[in-house]
Specification:
Layout lengths: L7 E4 L2 E5 L8 H7 L2 H17 L6 H25 L1 H4 L17 H22 L2 H25 L3 H10 L1 H10 L4 H24 L1 H7 L4 H5 L1 H24 L5 H23 L3 H31 L1 H4 L2
Antiparallel strand pairs: 1-2
Helix pairs in contact: 2-3, 2-8, 2-14, 3-5, 3-6, 3-8, 5-6, 6-7, 6-8, 7-9, 8-9, 9-12, 9-14, 12-13, 13-14
């Protein structure tokens, strides 16, 4: 990788500033380094892991675990932005991030990410339990090192393998609440793991030019859009029945079974449309619809699991 600290970026038609100059960072810039959208998904899925775990967990312990998981996720985001500052600068959807925009220096982002990483793991280990802390440490390492520093720039399977990092939070939450790893937490991990490729490849279909300019070997860039559409459909065919498995295995109630079935059918329908529509505006629209709905799909699955766990009597389940 090139030395990011020595790079200069265009600050929206203004005079470029060396990235090792004094920081212009605001609180909002540091919040942006945490990738709050990703963090919100991490918090939500980790919460489901906590409330679905067997046994009772003290609310203070649960809050502490959730806070540490959230901070660990934000630390991963900061480390990701530090390493990827060079490619973020040439991609339209990332060029306004704090480092390429010149608001935060790479050194500041690195120090911020490392401090949050160490702090979140230590607090989780000292105040909750060692297993959850070890899982959180591995999650941060996997995202920041295995995915960001290695897989992302070396293989079109970057999203497939790297998706494990985003799938760990419910397992970390489960371990924080129960001190162990259960079958249901593994299923939650697998649902997110198999959801990740169709979700991100749908985005990559209509942002492939960005990835090509940045030199990132995303599947559409390396193998073409036809293969990407085929892979999206294949992963969706695995995802939909997998997402319904908690109901069939007796781990979730009727509400989950109905929602996962209906939402899964819509997810599959959109994946089929992406597979069939190969040219022009209809193809881009199909990919955009799948990307947008995939977020709602995952949210619905975990929302029903959460509601069933905290209010089973009210649902009659």
């Amino acid at each position: 990788m090139s030395d990011v600290a020595s790079r200069e970026y265009d600050l929206s038609q203004t005079e470029p500033r060396p990235l090792d100059a004094p920081s212009y960072a605001s609180v909002s810039d540091y919040i942006a380094l945490l990738k709050p959208r990703v963090m919100s998904l991490v918090i939500f899925t980790a919460l489901v892991g906590i409330v679905r775990a067997p046994g009772e967990v003290h609310p203070v312990i649960a809050f502490t675990a959730l806070l540490c998981i959230a901070i660990g996720a934000g630390a991963s985001g900061a480390l990701n932005m530090w390493w990827d500052a060079d490619i973020d600068a040439v991609m339209s959807r990332t060029k306004r991030r704090p480092i390429p925009a010149g608001h935060v220096t790479p050194g500041e982002a690195l120090a911020f990410g490392l401090t949050l990483s160490v702090g979140s793991v230590l607090v989780l280990g000292l105040l909750v339990n060692e297993l959850s802390a070890a899982l959180l440490a591995f999650t941060i390492f996997f995202y920041a090192v295995v995915y960001t520093m290695w897989l992302k720039r070396s293989t079109p399977q970057n999203i497939v393998i790297g998706g494990a990092a985003g799938a760990f939070p419910p397992m970390v939450g489960w371990a924080a609440a129960s001190g162990g790893i259960g079958l249901e937490s593994i299923l939650l991990f697998l649902i997110i793991f198999f959801w990740t490729p169709p979700h991100f490849w749908a985005l990559a279909l209509y942002k492939s030019g960005d990835y090509a300019r940045a030199g990132v070997p995303m599947l559409p860039v390396v193998s073409g859009t036809a293969e990407t559409r085929r892979q999206i459909l294949l992963y969706t065919l695995i995802l939909v029945p997998l997402a319904m498995s908690p109901f069939f295995l007796g781990m979730a109630g009727l509400a989950y079974g109905v929602v996962s079935g209906i939402a899964g059918g819509l997810m599959l329908l959109l994946a089929v449309q992406v597979y069939r529509r190969r040219e022009g505006a209809p193809a881009e629209q199909a990919a955009r619809r799948l990307f947008g709905f995939s977020i709602l799909y995952l949210f619905l699955l975990f929302a029903v699991l959460l509601v069933e766990a905290v209010a089973p009597a009210g649902l009659g389940l």
